[in-house]
Amino acid sequence: MHGKRHDMTVHSDQPYNAEPPPSALAGSDLTPTDAFYCRNHGPVPDLDPGSWRLRVDGRVATPLTLSLDDLRGRLPEATETATLQCAGNRRAGLTAVRDIPGEAPWGPAATATATWTGVRLTDVLDAAGLADGATDVEFVGADVSDAADPPQEFGGSVPLRKARMPEVLLAWAMNDEPLSPVHGAPLRVVVPGYIGARSVKWLQRIEVRDRPSANFFQASTYRLLPPDAPVTATPGEGVELGLVAVNSDFLRPDDGSSHPAGPVTVAGYAFAGGDRTVVRVDVSSDGGATWAQADLGTQASPWAWRHWSATVDVPRGTTEVLARAWDSSAALQPERPEQVWNPKGYVNNSWARLRLRGV
Ligand code: MTE
Prior knowledge:
By secondary structure, the chain is mostly beta strands.
């Protein structure tokens, strides 16, 4: 369905939410589109690219209505390789600590990396011209989500200083192919380094504002609440999520798999958002008493994850292998999911754990 691999874990059909087996993300810095996770809060809209228009308004000098041809014809094309990561990535580790009703137990594959092609958001903002008081840029999609209270189009904003950065794109292509409907055709935002929720799909409106978005998916969800808070936040409660915290997980071999006792090569990804990058990944097979540094792969762009690998010794019986990443601000993943549990199950960046059986 939706051009995805047959072995996706489908968290829900309607709306379509799915992630691939972790091993599908290994082996290549760029994720094949058929293995790229999908996260939707409403039905996939069926938009006709010919009649589709993008409205740019709010605190701008000249409100604009742009067609795809306008964007392609008037502005320079830009391409960026960037990792998207959902704030709910690895939620399963938090669900195991305490139930998280109403939220799918996403595994470690609600993240992936693609090349995105389109125009720079900052060029569109220049075309409209900014008016006084502009501080935030809101994106609104064409999909109406019943999960929102009240039901509304999916949206969210980023600070103007991020919107002005050259890496923030309005993209019509993914991995050199036209964007597919499920990934936001005809146009989506790509905000590298921010939680996936800000990369709004089926973009139909950009509003330049003097404050952050009041959209349900920014003001009331995708917020970090204290563990004892009620699940439904009042708008503005808790910490608004934005920059992606340093995180990592295993991609190979499969959790729970059996191997001849002896050396086993394990591999995974690590990612840090904002303007931070992953600088080190440690692996332990003795519960964290000692750590060895994994081999870090190349980084396809400053906005992309890094793959890593290490060889660990697996004796007979069950061994738990641990991994933890450090970013360029010397932030280290926290040890246990209990330490980061929150009522909506966001940002599980606790150490990665993989059980292997030596036989
Ligand atoms: N944009 C719209 N319009 N509607 C959505 O439900 N989901 C967001 C974001 N953009 C969403 C959206 C979330 S939470 C994530 S993680 C990413 O899209 C996922 O992008 P993908 O489905 O292309 O992988």
